[in-house]
Predict the 3D structure of the following.
Amino acid sequence: MYLKIYCIKKKGKVIQFYAHQFNRIRAGLIPSDEKVVCTAFNLTKRLRTGDMIVGYGRVTPIVSDENPGAFNAVNYYRAKGIHQQCLLTHHLLILGNYPTWRNNVEHFREKLSAIFDKQLTVRESGLAKALLLGDASAVNATGKATFSATGAIHLLAVSGMHVSLLAQVLVLFFSLFHRIVKRNLTQLLCIGLLGYFAVLTGLSPSVVRSVLMFSLLQMAQLFGEKNNNNHSLLLCAFLMLVFDPPCLFDIGFQLSFLAVFGIYNFQKPLETLINPNRKILRFLWSNLCISIAAQALTLPLTLYYFHSFPNYFLLASIGLAFLSSVVMYLGFLYLFVCSIPYLSHMIAVPFQISLKTLCQFLETVASIPGAKAEGYELTPLMSLLLALSIVVLLSSKFFNKMRVVPISLMILLITVGRYRRQTEHHLHLLSGKTSFAIYKRGSHATIIIPQNSSCKTTHFLCHNYGKVYPFKRLDTIYVNEGDSLIFDQFALQQKNHCLLFSRTVSGKPNTVDTLICRGRTNNRTRKIQFD
């Protein structure tokens, strides 16, 4: 199998990379339309983007884990145009390196990452790479959980906010040379530099959308035309889908456009509800309205994809409005002066302090009891109806008293479903390398796992399971090969790394209302209801 690496995602003992697949013919190698995500263990050779390699491995279709709250790998890789995966052996042969312009950009990003590693600690360096370069691989799981619990997870992926701040920095920089650099040239230079920044950070949909909208705004000013925000937003979506249709399935694409649509259409109506007298209050209220408008339109997708909601996102947004701007400004300034010995060290100190302050603030908010509400499971139809009801609520075109009816009905429906999952009694069979089972009785859950199972795998499964079926107490039961357990009307037996279950005849009352397992043919979850 012949592959050409175009992106390396993970490094270390386990390497994951994306590659184009090539076919061998008599005349040589010709590229195919297939892209593959590859995983390799314990490689002795260092791989780089642009490497042409030959290796041995079995190519299989990408499938998603059907366990509750699990990562949807099919949708994630489909947005990148990838439908197959491959596990490679350590016997790889590098045929040569054939870099493209993207590879040169990747190497430049690695050099910038090394700059952060020189004068920042591991934690602050990983956060700086995520904020400024779009590389969140160095942020640990605890840090990501903190950002997620406060509704600030978008900071770890370069988004429109980052582009907006960089655009302000560039405009301010070129304004210092207004006698030399004319306004038209300044606009073109900003468009070019922002485009390079988008390529540098990986061309994520949110960044591409922001750069496109900035470019359209600048071009409209150059030609003296008026710019309509909604028209520009639709044009950006059209252009992105024309050149990259799979990005429609990207979560970042969907969240980015919905958030901007909400800000454009509902921020001003929300601001008119309160008119503070002092400037600082007006500043805080304006930022709160931006957060509310963006969070309102993205709420259906947030509940659908992540099964949780950050309850204190408004409190977090108050601090983020100031701290994130300070971090970004100091970060860009640090990159500009990194080659100047003493000046770079002077900027590195306040930059590191700002990163620590941002982390401590988010950790404080995340530590408040009830910071994150879990247990939401929406169908695509429910997500659509919730989005429509939110638009009706925020729109002034509908009758004032009647527009609260749809959102009230949706809140009631979602709350009832969440309460049912919290108090449900069921036996859930989970899939993995070995079989797992979770026996849930209200807020008490018991996981049944083989004796030699990995603690990391167990924690991962329980964490995902708790997103959909919240619990307060978790007990663990280990079973050996051949052991059997009796749970009310069920008998579970460990055999050949699988949990086999059967009905038992007993006089005990049925406390398991539902058995949830995966179908053997269609690979989908099914529920068996008991009387």
Observations:
- The two ends are 54 Å apart (CA to CA).
- The chain is about 50% helix and 20% strand.
- The longest strand covers residues 28-41.
- Confidence is low (pLDDT under 50) at residues 518-531.
